[in-house]
Amino acid sequence: MANEHNEQAQDIQQEQAEQQNEQTQADVEPANVSVEDLQEQIKKLEESLKLEKARTANAVYEAQKSVERIQRESEKHKDTVIEKFAKELLDSVDNLERAIQAGGNEESPVLEGVKLTLKSLLTTLEKFGVVEADTTRGFNADLHQAVGIDPTAKPNEIGNVLQKGYTLNGRLLRPAMVMVGQ
């Protein structure tokens, strides 16, 4: 498509150069101008106007396509950056969850602070489209990674979740590591 526009631009430039040559020759000719000559000159000027309009339309089209392409690339880059950042934050989520498990049933101000910190972090991640992958509806190879067999679980059901999985705006960010029944 870009080659087609470049060829059109070259054709337009050649025609303009020819028109300028003809116009300078017409300027050099004597002042005896007939109606036919004027009509011919009007016709050439109208053609020149059409060419300029086409050139302008092509330039506007190319500019719009460039803006659209830049916007697509910008969105893709933004998604990539958010994805990398979110993956790094998931390690902190895992560590906070481990700290809560290590605290056991004992309630302390420190444990309460860790729970609040985890809740705040998860809320922030959800604002940007990061949500926990569902493990309640059975094993799904698109969302879960089976790392072992759980003898107590029903076939194709998730028995134990070793590490939570997360999605970002519907796309898998990290699969859940699960034990599955046979």
UniProtKB/TrEMBL annotation:
Chaperone as UniProt keyword: yes
Keywords per UniProt: Chaperone, Cytoplasm, Stress response
A GO cellular component annotation in the UniProt record: cytosol
Biased amino acid composition, Low complexity: 9-26
Protein's UniProt keywords contain Chaperone: yes
Signal peptide positions (record): none
Record localization: Cytoplasm
Protein name as catalogued: Protein GrpE
